[in-house]
Design a protein that fits this description.
Blueprint: E1 10-13, E2 16-19, E3 23-26, E4 36-37, E5 50-53, E6 58-59, E7 62-63, E8 70-72, H1 74-80, E9 91-94, E10 103-105, E11 113-114, E12 118-121, H2 130-138, H3 140-149, E13 151-152, E14 156-157, H4 160-164, E15 167-170, H5 173-218, E16 226-228, E17 236-238, E18 242-245, H6 246-249, E19 250-254, E20 267-274, E21 279-280, E22 283-284, E23 290-291, H7 294-298, E24 310-313, E25 321-323, E26 331-333, E27 337-342, H8 349-357, H9 359-368, H10 379-383, E28 386-389, H11 392-435
Parallel strand pairs: 5-11, 20-26
Antiparallel strand pairs: 1-2, 3-15, 4-12, 5-8, 6-7, 9-10, 9-12, 13-14, 16-17, 18-28, 19-27, 20-23, 21-22, 24-25, 24-27
């Protein structure tokens, strides 16, 4: 960051060199109260009441109340707040689970309760500004301390007594204010750029979906005569097209259990076992697949895979699809996935791939699962999916056009994602350099700007 100067004088510390007037001390030394958390027991959740917040609500340095666990009663909240009552400028750190170390600051007063995976950290404002503390514990330096000291049980976690004894770097209040003002200004600018690019991705993905759906339902000739398909999720199609059901055109098989296969039976060599998590950009990432014995492979010949098979997930994120290409010698399905093949070349695999990626299939799934909370694609439901089908020549042209246009959009989306990643890296680097004194930012903003 060559545009920024260094401080005039440095000294040695446990973190390497820091500005001469700064100090290092334990986190607990700058807090107005001990680090606390919410209840450890799971409360009864309701459709209304007081918001109940846990780790998943910690997003991008803020609490996202749209991601609350649910609501608790006023009575339960009154009980919980005796132990932990959130206040404006409190900092919340995830202390257990996959996102351990993520933090958020509460910038507006709000009534809610937190659960035990969150630790509440409250700054002593006579020593440290809450926002400066937030920036410091958001920094790579503090996260590294968390990661080297967390424990593993069923999941990663960090104890409260360990957390409060982690070290921070403390400038004087005047320097804190100037650094905080600088980071407020810079992060707002960077976050705005990130938001713009995220919105661009949303628009590009909407366009991508529109290209797929429009082409598999309307074809390539804008002047072709249309007819009503009579199917709710399809609408009008070209007059010379037909509609058909999966069960009339497609071999469909899935695994129903597997004689008690256990993960400890996985091997280092042998046939590949494909599940939905191995789907990547419409194909199979063979390197992520588990392996099984020849005996287990031979138990289910009906789901042994062939090149050009089309796979469809039926559990979890249902409707994800992948085409089998460059198959190893032997591969087979795990549970949660259907294998499909066309009967007698009634359609091209690539064409059905785009049908299943279109809103035609998405809308069908939504209609069929309406009113249910458990998302699962039953084979009977899939077999009865009605889809539009032109002749093979038109299918080939449609598939090639969609592939070409979505590839162009995907390239733009991927480049934009890379730009977002670089902006986030820059934001993280800027925070680290500023709160550790690697760069002197005091002359870049005025002290009169608001800091907290």
């Amino acid at each position: 960051m060559s545009e920024f100067k260094a401080y005039p004088e440095y000294k040695d510390s446990v973190f390497g060199v820091i500005p001469a007037r700064w100090q290092t001390l334990a986190l607990k030394r700058v807090l107005s109260t001990k680090i606390t958390d919410g209840p450890h027991e799971t409360p009864t959740l309701h459709d209304e009441g007081i918001p109940f917040i846990s780790a998943e609500a910690v997003r991008n340095g803020r609490l996202d109340f749209n991601l609350k666990r649910g609501y608790i009663t006023k009575e339960a909240h009154n009980t919980y707040k005796k132990k932990c009552l959130p206040q404006k400028n409190d900092i919340f750190m995830v202390k257990s689970g996959a996102t351990t170390g993520n933090v958020a600051i509460l910038e507006k007063e709000r009534e809610f309760s937190i659960w035990s995976p969150l630790a509440l950290i409250r700054a002593n404002r006579e020593m440290i500004l809450p926002k400066f503390l937030f920036y410091f514990i958001s920094s790579v330096l503090f996260k590294e301390q968390v990661e080297t000291r967390w424990n593993y049980g069923t999941q990663q976690n960090i104890g409260m007594n360990i957390l409060e004894n982690l070290l921070i770097i403390l400038p004087d209040l005047k320097d804190q204010k100037l650094i905080t003002n600088f980071l407020n200004q810079k992060t707002i600018e960077i976050n705005s750029l990130i938001s713009d690019k995220e919105r661009l991705i949303e628009l590009l993905e909407e366009k991508r979906q529109a290209v797929i759906t429009e082409t598999v339902t309307k074809g390539l000739d804008p002047n072709v005569k249309m007819k009503d398909s009579g199917i709710e999720w399809i609408g009008e199609v070209p007059e010379h097209w037909n509609t058909t059901k999966i069960k009339y055109t497609t071999y469909v098989k899935g695994r129903i259990g597997w004689q008690g296969l256990r993960s400890d039976e996985f091997t280092d060599v042998g046939p590949h076992l494909v599940t939905g998590t191995d789907f990547q950009d419409g194909f199979i990432n063979w390197s992520t697949c588990h392996r099984i014995s020849e005996e287990r492979y031979e138990e289910a010949p009906e789901i042994q895979l062939k090149n050009n098979d089309l796979l469809v997930t039926k559990d979890g994120t249902i409707g994800k699809v992948a085409i089998v290409k460059d198959k190893p010698e032997k591969a087979i399905l795990n549970s949660g996935v259907f294998v499909t093949r066309p009967y007698k070349e009634t359609y091209l695999t690539e064409y059905l791939y785009w049908i299943l990626n279109s809103n035609v299939f998405i809308d069908y799934i939504d209609i069929m699962s309406s009113g249910t909370t458990v998302r699962h694609l039953y084979q009977e439901t899939f077999n009865n999916f009605v889809y539009p089908i032109p002749n093979l020549k038109e299918q080939a042209i449609i598939s090639e056009l969609i592939s070409r246009e979505t590839s162009q959009l995907d390239n733009i989306i991927n480049e934009t994602r890379l730009q977002i990643s670089k902006l986030k890296e820059y934001r993280e680097s800027l925070i680290y350099e500023a709160v550790t004194g690697k760069i002197d930012v005091r002359n870049y903003v005025t002290e009169k700007e608001e800091a907290y």
